[in-house]
Design goal:
The protein is an alpha/beta fold. Helix content is 43%, strand content 12%. The strands form 3 sheets. The protein has an 8-stranded mixed sheet, sandwiched between helices. A 5-stranded parallel sheet has the order 10-9-8-11-12, with helices on both faces. Strands 14-15 form a two-stranded antiparallel ribbon. Helix 17 links the parallel strand 11 and strand 12.
């Protein structure tokens, strides 16, 4: 592992950025020329947008580089054991929101005199998750661009670069293994197959993986790379004896492997993800994607808090919200006359809300059914036994998101099972802007796998039958049977009942949980960031470094207290 400190005008990082100055000028010149091309020309518009993104990226990197140098010059004498920062699965060549949260937090630590060690990839993986090309799995990741970006972020800091080194013994052990054998593969006491599986499912956008050579190849390379990370990270832990480590997400194999090694050595591992509000982050000692929250039993929303939550909900029910920078609805339409005419032919309406495969494939989601499609298979039998009920299967709006489109979709499942032939089923595709909330209002009860709409339905006072572990199921918010038999029995009970009594605690807990998500656990970083050309990326503002102090920033104060004093990473009211 190569350790470098980048500081000064002769640093390798600066020369890397210097090499980009000519493309920066060229991009600006070309952008100016493109302005005079006919706007009706789609090719001209395409290249204009491409050049705008490129120019914005370089300008943002220049801003990061300048701020990083200011941080490096202002860092006081370090004291105490270091904190390790590692993120390899959030942005290759641009500042994603999580990359921004990661960087700003590390700057705040350094400015408080807390030593920070960055663990960074320098072609240290044969194939990383974000650099995987689904249609050409052997295509190498864009290491040069990624390393340039990392050098920009870590200007003037202690960086522990790791390169890839093959392990002959491991390579021999992987020869000829089937996909199931690779999924359960362990080596050196580390469950490498299981650590790599979430990332593989996420990037392939499918839960049920094909036992073919491209899939086996990817998993083998992920395992080889994960083992290399484990060895390099263990060396770093032994040398630095850190007080804690902070990683993005913790589910993709690079961070999951480092987290596993840290835990084995008794080092506290903290994960982070985007918060529920725009430009906010969520930090936790647990799994960030599972969103563990401790809400005191005696916490009740006061009048001001209730009004604040109601204002948020009124906007959300109109489709006026974003998730991780993405706005799904440009408009939301109500139930039309054709739908209402069809619904009038049935005794009752039951909507079925599915989720995206990269959320339902997380290890902590599938505690009742093996996966979401196993749930749909079981539900389909019930649908066909209850022709008096109109079931509305609603695909998640994120299922066909650009650059994240699922390969294993609910639409495909509907087609494969001839669901269109069932007169008591309506399928709503992901791009359809039908109001889910109007659907819930007219429904007898709502069925979900693990999507947030279930919590919102509970807030509306409606009965919800849940099939997968969700963030909000850590508290009594929905009906959540503990096994398949109990789930199917509860489903039959609901379909046959004249009415369904919903415990008052469901609505109370759902409101409390959502309020905690929004206003206690979502740590604001908007003072330092603005939205980029893509809403999933941020641009660094110019600000005084004092604003990264705990005295000025509630978010920084909360994170510092969480790491240094075993705090709960929740804002004070």
């Amino acid at each position: 592992m190569e350790t470098q400190t980048h500081l000064g005008t002769d640093a390798p990082h600066v020369s890397s950025f210097g090499e980009s100055r000519r493309p920066l000028q060229t991009a600006a010149l070309r952008l100016n020329r493109v302005k005079f091309l006919p706007m009706s020309n789609p090719i001209s518009e395409f290249y204009k947008q491409k050049l705008q993104r490129r120019l914005t990226r370089h300008l943002n990197n220049l801003q990061i580089w300048k701020m990083a140098r200011r941080v490096a010059k202002a860092v006081p004498a370090a004291k105490g054991a270091p904190v390790i920062f590692f993120k390899a699965s959030s942005g290759i060549d641009d500042l994603s929101w999580n990359s921004a949260f990661h960087l700003l937090t590390s700057w705040a630590f350094r400015l408080q005199g807390i030593p920070v060690e960055y663990f960074a990839c320098k072609s240290g993986m044969t194939h990383c998750v974000l650099g995987t090309h689904r249609d050409d799995v052997e295509q190498k990741p864009p290491c040069a661009s990624c390393i340039y970006q990392s050098k920009t972020l870590y200007t003037g800091a202690d960086v522990n670069w790791f390169a890839f080194q093959a392990d002959a013994e491991l390579d021999r052990a992987l020869v000829g293994l089937t996909l199931p054998e690779l999924m359960d593969f362990e080596f050196g006491g580390i469950p490498l197959g299981q650590l790599c599986l979430p990332g593989l499912r996420w990037i392939l956008r499918k839960h049920h993986l094909d036992d073919d050579e491209p899939t086996r190849y990817l998993l083998r390379e992920y395992i080889r790379s994960a083992w290399n990370i484990a060895q390099e990270f263990e060396t770093l832990l032994t040398r630095t004896q850190p007080r804690a480590m902070i990683v993005f997400n913790g589910q993709m194999y690079p961070e999951a492997t480092a987290k596993f090694v840290a835990t084995k050595h008794g080092v506290r591992a903290i994960t982070h993800e985007v918060g529920l509000r725009p430009k906010t982050a969520f930090f936790t000692d647990g799994e960030a994607t599972a969103y563990p929250l401790h809400i005191p039993n005696d916490f009740e929303l006061n009048d001001e808090q209730n009004a604040r939550l109601d204002d948020y909900l009124s906007k959300r029910f109109r489709g006026d919200f974003t998730m991780a920078g993405m706005k799904f609805w440009s408009d939301m339409k109500g139930l039309d006359e054709e739908f209402l005419a069809k619904a009038a032919q049935f005794k009752q309406i039951v909507p079925i809300f599915t989720n995206v495969i990269f959320d339902t494939s997380q290890p902590h989601a599938n505690t009742v059914f093996e996966d979401m499609f196993a749930w749909l298979d079981a539900v389909l039998n019930v649908i066909r036994a209850h022709r008096e009920t109109l079931f509305v299967i609603r695909a998640h709006p994120d299922e066909m998101r650009v650059r994240k489109a699922s390969q294993e979709t609910v639409a495909n499942w509907v087609a494969e099972h001839d669901v269109f032939k069932d007169e008591n089923v309506i399928f709503v595709p992901p791009q359809e802007t039908l109001s889910s909330y109007e659907l819930i209002q007219r429904a007898k009860f709502t069925m979900i796998y693990n999507s947030t709409i279930g919590m919102e339905a509970s807030i509306m006072g409606k009965p919800v039958l849940c099939a997968g572990k969700a963030r909000f199921t850590q508290y009594p918010t929905v009906f959540f049977p503990k096994n398949v038999a109990a789930y199917l029995a509860k489903l039959e009970e609901f379909l046959s009942a004249e009415s369904i009594d919903v415990p008052a605690a469901f609505k109370r807990n759902a409101r409390r949980f959502l309020y905690y998500q929004l206003y206690f656990s979502s740590l604001p970083f908007g003072e330092y960031l603005e939205t980029g050309i893509r809403t999933s990326h941020g641009l660094l503002k110019n600000f005084e470094l004092e604003k990264l102090s705990p005295e000025h920033s509630p978010a920084i104060k909360t994170i510092l207290d969480g790491v240094l004093n075993d705090g709960d990473f929740l804002l004070s009211e």
